[in-house]
Design goal:
CATH topology: Uracil-DNA Glycosylase, subunit E
Oligomer: single chain
Number of domains: 1
Helix content: 40-55%
CATH class: Alpha Beta
Strand content: 5-15%
Distance between the termini: 38 Å
Low-confidence stretches: 201-211
Shape: globular
Mean pLDDT: 92
CATH superfamily: Uracil-DNA glycosylase-like domain
Largest sheet: 5 strands, mixed
Structural class: alpha/beta
Order of helices and strands: HEHHEHEHHEEHHH
Number of strands: 5
């Protein structure tokens, strides 16, 4: 990554931390831009910061973050090799779902992160992350239960990526039945997409297997 790109990313982080584009800035303690290597091949995109993230200014540091770390391990990944961020960079009050206008206000930041980091694989954890990324790519979202585990080629911000949607780790904490499905997704489709991306080949999609 060039010095120019790195400086541009640092400017982006400063902008996010001082952002007032939507009302969420009024109740936050810290905005949460994201963290990880700027040359990461894999990006994890969640929904929005929770209480622990708001307090520390870092993504996925609460209970859901600990589970995410274990799931990444199932896919042969280390957290330090992955760039982690959220659709919305500030915590919604009481951890409610982000409103459409809040998502829209934050989208330019996510697109700029994708353009800067140029990941090969994006793991979309949760309904809002999956549906938002599909919309950015011009794809039709059928719901997280139907889309989870798919390997989908897409283009966002001029960057060719592979999106693998799955449940949010927090969902598995509230609904233990989802834990097995999450583990299946990380051991299977996520691991396969990362492996194929590392080989420089386009990974197969569900449509490929159906042909």
């Amino acid at each position: 990554m060039s010095v120019k790109d790195r400086n541009g990313y640092e400017d982006l982080v400063k902008t996010i931390k001082s952002c007032t584009r939507c009302p969420l800035h009024a109740s936050r303690k810290n905005a949460v831009p994201g963290e990880g290597p700027l040359d990461a091949e894999v990006m994890v995109v969640g929904e929005a910061p929770g209480r622990s993230e708001d307090e520390q200014g870092r993504p996925f540091v609460g209970a859901a973050g600990k589970l995410l770390d274990r799931l990444l391990g199932e896919a042969g990944l280390e957290r330090g090799r992955v760039y982690i961020t959220n659709i919305v960079k500030c915590r919604p009050p009481n951890n409610r779902d982000p409103k459409p206008e809040e998502i829209q206000a934050c989208l330019p930041y996510l697109i700029e992160q994708i353009k800067t980091i140029r990941p090969k694989v994006i793991i979309a954890v949760g309904r809002i992350a999956g549906s938002t990324l599909y919309k950015l790519a011009g794809l039709r979202w059928e719901g997280v239960r139907r889309e989870r585990g798919r390997i989908v080629r897409a283009r966002i911000g001029g960057v060719d990526v592979v999106i693998v949607p799955t449940y949010h780790p927090a969902a598995a904490l509230y609904n233990p039945q989802l834990r097995g499905e999450l583990e299946e997704d990380f051991k299977g489709p996520v691991k396969r997409a990362v492996r194929e991306a590392g080989r420089g080949r386009k990974p197969p999609t569900l449509e490929d297997f159906m042909e």
